[in-house]
């Protein structure tokens, strides 16, 4: 069973930057229509011009929206209904978020994190799945994070969203089994920013992949109908090992990745963000 990517209609959130942008570039030659959702209208315009120049027959719907705000998913869906567009594939790739202690964050910031990274993907799935099931064809690729298996200080709210969605999509996959709908949860590690890429295959420390390679491996796993994708051989090996470690050792790894506390001697030669297994 494969998701209907080729000649299909694909909705991509977080399409303006990072993996969302690279996924849009790699899907553009295959799709009939891309629905690009991003909170930066000017970046949407730039991306659409680039994609249209390379793929003249590609249809595109550009929807500026900030998914960290309640009601934005419903507004996006209403605009699509006005265009008589029903996506057959959903790609959740909205990422980002600040690294800070839970108690140092404002509750507004925490709510925005949970709205963007937990509630918005749930709402999109709830709105789009019934039509996919009725057609007996569809797919959801959620770009989550290795955080779903790690404990990292300073990323507690983001970890809540990622761990929740990991369980949600595993359960949802069982609910739609045999319906023709593919559900894939991707948990990438560190990804080079697009501006850092040179030839798209440049090696990087701590298993950091180029955005091009990461997106390519995510789409390959999604195309094969895999339930869970760890892009990159090194990252997949590490995550397979981490998942078997006792929680006490995982907590120790989290302390190591976060670096020393105030007053302690530094223990890391590399900045902590190089060790955080998040899509960036």
Automatic annotation (TrEMBL):
InterPro entries for the chain: KR_dom, NAD(P)-bd_dom_sf, SDR_fam
Cellular component per GO, a single term: membrane
SMART domains for the chain: PKS_KR (SM00822)
Keyword line: Oxidoreductase
Bias-annotated ranges (Low complexity): 268-280
GO molecular function annotations of the record: oxidoreductase activity
Region Disordered, annotated ranges: 257-280
All copies of domain Ketoreductase, residue ranges: 8-189
Family from the record: Belongs to the short-chain dehydrogenases/reductases (SDR) family.
Name this polypeptide is given: Ketoreductase domain-containing protein
Native source organism of the sequence: Stigmatella erecta
Origin organism lineage: Bacteria, Pseudomonadati, Myxococcota, Myxococcia, Myxococcales
């Amino acid at each position: 069973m494969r998701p209907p990517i080729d000649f299909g209609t694909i909705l991509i959130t977080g399409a303006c930057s990072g993996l969302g942008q690279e996924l849009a570039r790699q899907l553009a030659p295959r799709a009939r229509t891309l629905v690009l959702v991003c909170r930066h209208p000017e970046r949407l315009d730039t991306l659409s011009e680039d994609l249209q120049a390379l793929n003249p027959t590609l249809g595109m719907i550009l929807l500026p929206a900030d998914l960290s705000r309640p009601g934005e998913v419903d507004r996006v869906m209403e605009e699509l209904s006005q265009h008589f567009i029903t996506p057959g594939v959903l790609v959740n790739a909205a990422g980002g978020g600040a690294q800070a202690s839970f108690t140092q964050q404002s509750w507004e910031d925490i709510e925005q994190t949970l709205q963007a990274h937990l509630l918005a993907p749930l709402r999109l799935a709830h709105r789009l799945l019934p039509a996919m099931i009725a057609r007996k064809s569809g797919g959801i690729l959620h770009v989550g994070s290795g955080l779903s298996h790690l404990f990292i200080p300073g990323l507690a709210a983001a970890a809540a969203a990622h761990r929740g969605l990991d369980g949600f999509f595993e359960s949802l996959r069982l609910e739609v089994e045999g319906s023709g709908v593919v559900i894939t949860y991707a948990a990438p590690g560190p990804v080079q920013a697009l501006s850092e890429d040179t030839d798209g295959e440049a090696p990087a420390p701590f298993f950091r992949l180029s955005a091009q390679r990461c997106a390519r491996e995510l789409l390959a796993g999604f195309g094969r109908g895999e339930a869970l994708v760890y892009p990159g051989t090194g990252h997949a090996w590490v995550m397979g090992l981490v998942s078997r470690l006792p929680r006490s050792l995982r907590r120790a790894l989290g302390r190591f990745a976060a670096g020393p506390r105030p007053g302690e001697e530094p223990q890391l030669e590399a900045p902590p963000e190089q060790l955080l297994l998040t899509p960036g």
